[in-house]
Amino acid sequence: MASQVELPSQHPSLFRLFTKESLTKIERRIAEEAAAKEAAKELQEETGEEREESDDEKRRPDPALEQGKPLPTKLGEFPPELFGKPIEDIDEFYDDKMTFVVVARDKVIYRFSATSGFFCLSPFNPIRRAAIYVLTHPFFMMLVMIVILVNCVFMASNQDVPHSELIFTIIYTFEGSTKMLSRGFIFHTFSYLRDAWNWLDFVVVVLAYITMFVELGNLAALRTFRVLRALKTVAVVPGLKTIVGALMEAVRRLRDVGILTVFILSIFALTGLQIYQGTLKQKCVHDPPPGLNLTLDEIKEHNENETNWFYLKGAPKLCGMADDAGQCPPNHTCISVGPNPNYDYTSFDNFAWAFLCSFRLMTQDYWENLYQIVSDQRPLTSLFPLIAELTRDK
Question: I need a labelling partner for 349 at 20 to 30 A (CA). Which of 28, 246, 370, 391 fits?
Fold first, then answer.
């Protein structure tokens, strides 16, 4: 206890143990702030003037002191005796917030709610203190990472190791329980389920127990959710959260670019729909033997018989009705019959397939084959894929 009393005097600027006096100061600041806001609101109602935003309301969290970030070196040397212990929040933004921080031995910042978890675990409860120490220890994160990697190896192998799922589920349950005991469940800021990545952990554990103990018939669909365990690495490593968050923000900022891309592709899809709709089914079909008086059903059956189609390089030869289109050999007639080329995937019969063909041109996915196909139909309009390619290059 003597060391706890001396520590604040040794490090009076920033690094002070979080005590009951610290909690009382925060509650006092919150009450003063609420009273000041109430007084300002009453004054505004009396005078009718717009209240200006105070300096405290303009404050924002320091990005360098966010949860999961390493402790900045500009703050000086962190006292080794405070590693893994709750200290007063080092970000001025949280001076009037019910929070405290813990600096791990690898100098990563963890921020917790100073409210009672599960309505009974105060920040000074020995069980919660132990859970916080375990959660912030680098060995805990390393252990969970190793378990996740081993679990991925087991899922990739075809061998069913007895009791392996039960063992992994118990370990993940211990991990989740440690986070819940140290952070609280959901009701306060920085609690367990207030972090979206912890939703994934929670769902993985719940589904694991459902597949083990609840009889639901065919559980193959639920077992496929086990692959989500590989994403638990993002929730375990604080640095990965920052990287993934930055990637998601970059994708969000590319929204306008995506809208413009879809708009341009839609223009080319509509153009291709107007030009080539139904034309890619035109094939060279062998004429029926002369002198036969065939009915309409017999003619249709003859035309749909793939053995009567003319093949070129292993595929039905496409043709066109125009004079400059691909012509059929003697004793063959150009008829629209059968599926589109490439197993009916290359098609302009509706907007969706036309959009897919435009996307192929943009990504250069075997686009020369598409160019050759439309050239057999209407050579004068075969510039369509070339224009799309040139637009993509620009």
Answer: 391
